[in-house]
Design goal:
Length: 391
């Protein structure tokens, strides 16, 4: 199934229905000639896309994936009639400008990769299912965030009291689209037969090599995302950091804060995974948007607590707040959407709670446990959501 091209200048991501083959199965792919023979009833292998749909893999009931797609949040339309909330933001405008500039300059290549071949989903699912620390990891298009993220990864492990030893820090790079074997493997995961997967992977590589704007995959179109994942054995727990989302905040002047802050938010989700906070009443009762809002606001509070604590990242509160003002604009006012993260007001209220909790812990001279932070958040939650409680 092809994605539908956008009307006007608004990009929209298609998330596909649930169903898949064995996600860990790999089969040697035939040559493009063999693939074309297998599907001789279609005029070209590109037309075979019509005969297949890309399927979103089935996850076990215990699996957790947070912040599934920040890019879809950036693309999500906000209706200004529903809430006093900007219809566009600095970060979403940056991402859209990057994407639409490439589309305008190379419409055929862009539309082929993004709409016909869903290349950004390939990058996402490769990182989610296949990429591990068995291969050397780097962060940023040129590794510019590797040192700071590795340091933050070690520090968060020491700061929080959960078992973080098994959490792997993974870089998500659009350049993996040049690796035909990896791309074919991921297309098979998404439901394509091996023969078609092999051809599509070759076509993606060739299109990227022809492009003058997408930099061999090093482009925010493919990696404007970061997420935490706990799928269960044999797949390790992960925090995945996309190059594109960090490049966006660097462009807006937040390169000194964004990698640590985004990481801290995703680490907070692992605290929730391990401590069972997704089973809290607020996380299991009410509408899906309300349940998601609760866990996301808790992650905001925990990350703010860590970032400004003297034994955490020791970052300046005002500088963190400046970054969060922009970061929380990726939050939304789509109150009926299951991915609702809370309004910008609510997200900042959660962060202020985290700042003040860190200040109090500093005065008391001890490090709070994750359960103590959680209990304090639960008690404060009605006040945190109060600014927009009716929304």
């Amino acid at each position: 199934m092809r994605r539908t091209a956008p009307a006007g200048s608004t990009l929209a991501i298609v998330l596909f229905a649930v169903a898949c083959q064995d996600p860990m199965a790999t089969t040697p792919a035939p040559t493009p000639v063999e693939a074309r023979a297998e599907f001789a009833h279609v005029s070209t292998i590109a037309d075979a896309a019509i005969a297949y749909r890309l399927d979103r893999p089935v996850l076990p009931p215990s699996a957790r994936v947070s912040d599934f797609d920040m890019a879809s949040a950036a693309r999500r339309a906000i209706n200004p009639d529903d809430y006093v909330c900007a219809g566009s933001t600095a970060i979403s405008n940056w991402w859209l400008n990057e994407a639409l500039t490439s589309q305008a300059q190379e419409p055929a290549i862009f539309n082929f990769l993004y709409f016909d071949r869903a290349a950004d989903l390939v990058v996402f699912y490769d990182a989610l299912f296949f990429e591990t620390e068995d291969t050397p990891q780097y962060f940023g298009y040129n590794g510019e965030y590797t040192h700071v993220l590795e340091k933050t990864h070690r520090n968060a492990d020491l700061f929080w009291d959960i078992d973080a030893e098994g959490i792997q820090l993974i870089g998500m790079h659009g350049s993996m689209l040049l690796d035909v074997g990896r791309v074919a493997q991921t297309y098979q995961l998404l439901g394509l037969p091996p023969a078609v997967a092999a051809v599509w992977a070759s076509e993606v590589r060739n299109a990227l090599l022809q492009s003058q704007t997408l930099n061999g995959g090093d482009h925010s179109l493919f990696t404007f995302n970061a997420f935490a994942a706990s799928l269960g054995a044999p797949i390790p727990d992960k925090i995945v950091m996309g190059d594109g989302v960090m490049a966006g905040y660097e462009a807006l002047g937040f390169g000194d804060v964004a990698p640590q802050a985004i990481y801290a938010h995703e680490f907070a989700h692992h605290i929730q995974f391990q401590n069972g906070y997704f089973n809290d009443p607020h996380a299991t009762q009410g509408d899906p948007p309300e349940r998601t809002r609760y866990t996301e606001l808790m992650a905001d509070a925990m990350s703010a607590f860590y970032l400004t604590h003297k034994r955490g990242a020791t970052m300046n509160r005002h500088r963190v707040a400046e970054f969060l003002e922009v970061f929380f604009q990726i939050g939304d006012c789509a109150f009926t959407n299951a991915g609702h993260h809370g309004t910008p007001n609510q997200r900042m209220a959660a962060a202020v709670f985290g700042f003040e909790l860190a200040d109090g812990a500093r005065e008391q001279g001890h490090l709070m446990t994750s359960e103590q932070v959680h209990a304090a958040f639960v008690a404060a939650y009605p006040d945190i959501i109060a600014p927009d409680a009716l929304q």
